[in-house]
């Protein structure tokens, strides 16, 4: 092995060890690392498989479209493979945490080497490697990574750690050397990047285009080669990502579900811009959780830490003063200026301009988490400029002693500024937790019930955002609703009824007071319409919660739970099944229960379905199966007075496909399916689709079909259409990926031969 | 730099000073207008863009000082100015033409010094007072907690003594003490004022004394700079590796503008002998010549000799020495590509477009 390779190996080994140390110091080896966006979704592999491979999420009952999960498909598969190998969730979380840091550092090391090779090819490699190492260390350990490593690593993080490597490959193809092999490798990384956060992918794409425009004169490839590179990589990426866009295009769906006007995001933008002052952003800090860190006070009060924090922008400004690589520095300076402006969000002084952008540009609201969406470009630019500065010290300082002092000074500045990483202060305490055994017991208990049912979770999640639980020994959970993963069955968060306007309840009722809980008795009578069989009452719901900066807010979790238990204990028909220190499980009577597929024998026609459901249905006869359908229906089923309902048997093939066996049919009938209404749910008999005109909204939220088949016995196939296109796309993508890998292996084999 | 230019610069500094210390609100439009004005003014006055960078750095340092002093408003305001000047610098970097004559940062600093020295006492006082105000503000913030305690006790003591003067019961006993305390305060204030005045006088005297020395230094430095600017400088030579009949371009400045061998010569050291090279083209910044086919492969050293008139004397000046490597041409008898040939083709990736065009590669 030659000296150059040894050096590359050495610097990467240092990055490796640092990433390992940071991981173990911050996460330890005992506790689960769960919460925030990922919740518990990555803790239970069986459910992770369902939420990865199926376009309908039935776990978040009464169900929702799951096409957005295609963006994290590769990431989830990576996790599933690790599960399959035998890694535990605790270990996987450590692996991902480590990968995040190491890939950020080594990716930046590669990018900086490529940039220096493209723009200053004659410089001594020893200096190049050291400067690249300094830059990569900053990219790996900085206030931005403190913010994002505060929570479990998910697909969204890969935008950050894949950016340098992909950008490096992009520059390599345009300015160093281009071949089919390098184009394929770039395309694979671009594909991985698309699997990250969609809004980040868009901004990264714009960044790449901007680079081409800015450096159009420096691109050494001929225009025909540039075109070839572009079109080849575009085609490969299009093939690789076909499973993402095929369901969206052909099923005409929006992966974000209800994406409202951007003005709806302004409140969120204002919260996200709480700390994004220019003063903070120039020092790379400013995320919405900045003041929640235990070391925050050090960063605003300790003169030494303040001094170090100012050194970074100062070093950047110094690098601009020095007379070398002017155009490159101007480019990254421009990136800093643009992205500091964008990352500032609605914070003064330029906040009004940002608000104008958010109001006028369609879908710009997807960038509302301004710090997380834009600040990483500032970090990237800082890393490149710090690397160039170190390079300058090496080239232009004659004295060896001064060279060492200058470069060590920068290196130490980075390490000292990143001290919370070495002190283990990065993850939010609440996210490092122990899941109580009692929940695992509950999971096993409910698994024994083979019928098709849903569970109602009480009390409602505050504002429907997620649960805040306090378990034994100070272990906590804060994140998206965890119940469907904890118990492995579809769970309806009782907030669903609040947002549907049950008993005129408002969002505030999910937060404080017991207005919603007071009307629980009447709600019990309606649960059949939602295929609910069990009630899970959380005793571990917190009464108040610290939202950071000592801002403790009342949630009334305890009060709500007490109220619910008190009401349920007075209802003789409700049976208490399980009781632990964390929850109580109740079962509703069988006569109240309706399976997810049922044929009603009494139908109401109205356009105010939810009002009718909430106000009238609780008084009806429990022995009859009711359904509420739209008023203006005019079909054979409505006009035929068929009193005898057929016998029905349903079988779930997977969350997006059901097989229904219908027997003893005496005439047309309605088939109700208690999952959220979606135009893409299609029913077919013997391969013939039932017309969309016969597909209706039922019970205010569910699906219903008018079945007019004349056979006595037949089968109906219910499927979610985007799943079909996803499967086709997945096939195309898999073959393309296989081809790419085959070509890479073939090229490497050829080279060594 | 003209007085008007400096006045506007000074005006900007004044705005920063007022905005940072006295204005609470942060209005984006205000900064945008000033940024646009600064960019326009810098461009029109041919300021080197690094002057904006200098201001950016200074305001960043100011922001640091305010942060240390726990004055968050001041720190944020200064950081906004850092951003404003950084944006101006980046914008000016786009539009700055390398050939355009700009006021360099070093001459700017010299002229700033000049301005204050020439404008005399008023400027010195302005600086002095500004420094004192800044110092007091910073010290005030540094010792804020101590200051709060002292001022609290001080007020109490004064209040106590004044009230004792009003109290008929304790008037006789406390009167003497109160008067003594007030006298003490008066003496302290007087000492403070005298110290301030002495510092002020010393600084004025020191500045005036140094003015003449500094002014002479500036004059000498300017003369040396002017003299040096007449010397030819070769910035780069392309290609670094050449074949016979390759076209070579020398880029630089101060080559001269007359086609007169007595005035200008491109010299070459070849086969340990000196020759004059015949040029195909030359102007003040560029020389093009063709490598003759009778030159032998070897490393060739070039420099420019130029005669200039300085203080009524003719002086021969020489540029820096640059070199190229002349390698043998590939012909049908050559066995294969040598490593040097590979290097020749490798260098083409980084050559100027004009060099490539002249040598038939585009």
Structural description of this entry:
The complex is a heterodimer of chains A (753) and B (362). Chain A has 753 residues and is of the alpha+beta class. In chain A, 50% of the residues lie in helices and 14% in strands. Chain A contains 29 helices and 25 strands. In chain A, the strands form eight sheets. Chain A has a six-stranded mixed sheet. In chain A, strands 18-19-25-21-22 form a five-stranded antiparallel sheet. A four-stranded antiparallel sheet of chain A has the order 15-20-24-23. In chain A, a hairpin with a 3-residue loop joins strand 23 (695-698) and strand 24 (702-707). The longest helix of chain A is centred in the C-terminal third of the chain and has 32 residues, at 721-752. Chain A is globular, with a radius of gyration of 29 Å. Chain A starts with a helix and ends with a helix. The relative contact order of chain A is 0.10. With 362 residues, chain B is of the alpha+beta class. Chain B is 59% helix and 16% strand. Chain B has helices at 3-22, 28-44, 50-68, 72-95, 105-118, 121-142, 144-166, 171-229, 339-347, 353-358, and strands at residues 233-238, 241-242, 247-253, 264-270, 273-276, 281-282, 286-290, 298-310, 313-318, 322-326. In chain B, strands 2, 4, 5, 8, 9 and 10 form a six-stranded mixed sheet that branches. Chain B has a four-stranded antiparallel sheet with strand order 1-3-7-6, with no helix packed on it.
Features:
heterodimer; A: 753 residues; alpha+beta; six-stranded mixed sheet; five-stranded antiparallel sheet; 25 strands; globular; B: 362 residues; four-stranded antiparallel sheet; 10 helices; 59% helix
Oligomeric composition of the shown chains: heterodimer
N-to-C series of helices and strands of chain B = HHHHHHHHEEEEEEEEEEHH
Please give the most extensive interface between any two protein chains, plus how many residues each contributes.
Answer: A-B, 31 and 33 residues
What is the overall shape of chain B?
elongated
């Amino acid at each position: 092995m030659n000296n150059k390779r040894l050096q590359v190996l050495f610097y990467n080994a240092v990055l490796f060890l640092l990433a390992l140390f940071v991981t173990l110091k911050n996460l330890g080896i005992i506790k689960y690392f769960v919460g925030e966006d990922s919740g518990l979704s990555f803790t239970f592999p069986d459910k992770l498989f369902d939420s990865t491979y199926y376009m309908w999420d039935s776990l978040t009952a009464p169900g929702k479209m799951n096409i957005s999960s295609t963006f994290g498909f590769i990431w989830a598969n990576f996790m599933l493979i690790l599960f399959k190998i035998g890694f535990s969730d605790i270990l996987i979380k450590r692996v991902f945490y480590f990968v995040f840091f190491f890939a950020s550092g080594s990716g930046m090391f590669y990018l900086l080497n490529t940039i220096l090779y493209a723009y200053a090819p004659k410089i001594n490699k020893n200096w190049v490697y050291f400067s690249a190492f300094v830059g990569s260390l900053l990219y790996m350990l900085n206030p931005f990574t403190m913010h994002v490593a505060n929570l479990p690593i998910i697909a969204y993080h890969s935008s950050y750690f894949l950016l340098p490597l992909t950008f490096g490959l992009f520059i390599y193809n345009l300015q160093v050397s281009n071949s089919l092999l390098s184009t394929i490798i770039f395309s694979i990384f671009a594909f991985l990047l698309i699997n990250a956060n969609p809004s980040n992918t868009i901004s990264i794409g714009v960044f790449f285009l901007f680079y081409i425009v800015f450096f159009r004169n420096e691109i050494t490839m001929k225009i025909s080669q540039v075109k070839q590179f572009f079109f080849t990589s575009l085609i490969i990426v299009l093939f690789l990502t076909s499973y993402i866009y095929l369901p969206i295009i052909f099923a005409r769906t929006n992966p974000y579900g209800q994406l409202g006007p951007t003005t709806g995001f302004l409140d969120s933008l204002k919260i996200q811009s709480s700390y994004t002052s220019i003063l903070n952003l120039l020092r790379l800090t400013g995320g919405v959780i900045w003041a929640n860190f235990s070391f925050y006070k050090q960063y605003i009060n300790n003169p030494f830490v303040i001094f170090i924090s100012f050194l970074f922008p100062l070093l950047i400004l110094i690098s601009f003063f020095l007379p070398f690589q002017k155009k490159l520095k101007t480019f990254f300076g421009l990136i800093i200026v643009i992205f500091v402006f964008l990352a500032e969000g609605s914070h003064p002084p330029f906040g009004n301009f940002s608000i104008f952008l958010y109001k006028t540009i369609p879908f710009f609201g997807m960038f509302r988490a301004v710090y997380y969406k834009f600040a990483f470009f500032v970090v990237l630019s800082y890393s490149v400029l710090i690397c160039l500065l170190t390079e300058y010290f090496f080239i232009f300082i004659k004295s060896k002693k001064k060279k060492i002092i200058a470069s060590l000074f920068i290196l130490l500045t980075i390490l000292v500024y990143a001290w919370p990483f070495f002190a283990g202060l990065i993850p939010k305490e609440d996210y490092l937790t122990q899941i109580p055994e009692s929940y695992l017991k509950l999971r096993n208990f409910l698994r024994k019930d083979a019928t098709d049912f849903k569970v109602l979770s009480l009390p409602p999640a505050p504002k429907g955002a997620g649960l805040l639980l306090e378990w034994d020994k100070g272990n906590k959970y804060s994140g998206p609703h965890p119940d469907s993963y904890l118990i492995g069955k579809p769970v309806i968060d009782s907030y669903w009824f609040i947002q549907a306007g049950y008993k005129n309840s408002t969002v505030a009722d999910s937060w404080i007071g017991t207005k919603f809980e007071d009307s629980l008795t009447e709600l019990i009578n309606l649960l059949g319409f939602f295929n609910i069989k069990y009630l899970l009452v959380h005793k571990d719901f917190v009464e108040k919660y610290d939202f950071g900066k000592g801002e403790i807010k009342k949630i009334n979790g305890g009060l709500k739970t007490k109220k619910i238990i008190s009401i349920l204990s007075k209802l003789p028909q409700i049976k208490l099944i399980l009781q632990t220190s964390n929850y109580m499980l109740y079962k509703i009577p069988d006569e109240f229960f309706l399976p997810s597929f049922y044929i009603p024998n009494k139908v109401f026609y109205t356009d105010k379905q939810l009002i009718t459901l909430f106000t009238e249905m609780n008084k009806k006869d429990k022995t009859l199966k009711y359904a509420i359908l739209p008023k203006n229906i005019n079909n054979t089923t409505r006009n035929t007075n068929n009193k005898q309902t057929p016998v029905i048997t349903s079988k779930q093939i997977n969350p997006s496909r059901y097989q229904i066996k219908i027997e003893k049919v005496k005439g047309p009938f309605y088939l109700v399916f208690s999952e959220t209404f979606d135009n893409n749910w299609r029913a077919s008999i013997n391969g013939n689709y039932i017309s969309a005109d016969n597909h209706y909204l039922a019970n205010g939220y569910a699906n219903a079909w008018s079945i007019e088949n004349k056979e006595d016995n037949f089968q109906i196939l219910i499927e979610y259409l985007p799943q079909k296109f996803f499967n086709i796309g997945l096939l195309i993508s898999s073959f393309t990926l296989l081809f790419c890998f085959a070509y890479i292996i073939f090229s490497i084999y050829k080279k060594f031969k | 730099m003209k007085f008007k230019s400096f006045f506007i610069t000074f005006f900007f500094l004044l705005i920063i000073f007022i905005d940072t210390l006295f204005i609470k609100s942060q209005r984006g439009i205000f900064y945008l207008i000033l940024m646009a004005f600064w960019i326009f003014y810098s461009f029109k006055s041919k300021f080197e863009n690094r002057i904006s960078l200098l201001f950016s750095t200074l305001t960043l340092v100011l922001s640091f000082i305010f942060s240390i002093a726990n004055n968050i408003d001041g720190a944020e305001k200064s950081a906004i100015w850092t951003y404003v000047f950084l944006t101006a610098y980046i914008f000016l970097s786009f539009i700055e033409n390398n050939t355009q004559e700009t006021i360099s940062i070093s001459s700017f600093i010299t002229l700033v010094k000049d301005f204050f020295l020439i404008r005399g006492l008023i400027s010195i006082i302005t600086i002095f007072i500004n420094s004192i105000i800044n110092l007091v503000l910073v010290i005030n913030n540094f010792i804020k907690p101590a200051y709060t305690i002292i001022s609290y006790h001080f007020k109490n003591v004064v209040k106590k003594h004044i009230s004792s003067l009003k109290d008929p019961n304790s008037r006789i006993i406390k009167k003497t003490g109160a008067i003594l305390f007030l006298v003490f305060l008066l003496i302290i204030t007087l000492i403070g004022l005298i110290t301030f005045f002495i510092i002020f006088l010393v600084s004025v005297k020191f500045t005036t004394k140094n003015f003449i020395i500094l002014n002479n230094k500036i004059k000498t430095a300017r003369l040396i700079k002017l003299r040096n600017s007449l010397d030819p400088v070769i910035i780069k030579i392309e290609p670094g590796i050449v074949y016979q009949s390759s076209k070579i371009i020398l880029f630089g400045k101060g080559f001269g503008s007359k086609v007169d061998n007595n005035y200008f010569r491109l010299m070459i050291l070849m086969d340990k002998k000196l020759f004059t090279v015949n040029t195909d083209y030359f102007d003040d910044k560029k020389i093009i010549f063709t490598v003759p086919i009778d030159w032998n492969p070897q490393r060739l050293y070039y420099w420019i000799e130029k005669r200039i008139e300085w203080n009524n004397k003719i002086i021969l000046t020489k540029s820096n020495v640059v070199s190229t490597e002349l390698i043998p041409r590939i012909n049908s008898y050559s066995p294969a590509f040598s490593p040097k040939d590979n290097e020749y083709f490798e260098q083409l990736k980084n050559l100027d477009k004009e060099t490539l065009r002249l040598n038939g590669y585009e």
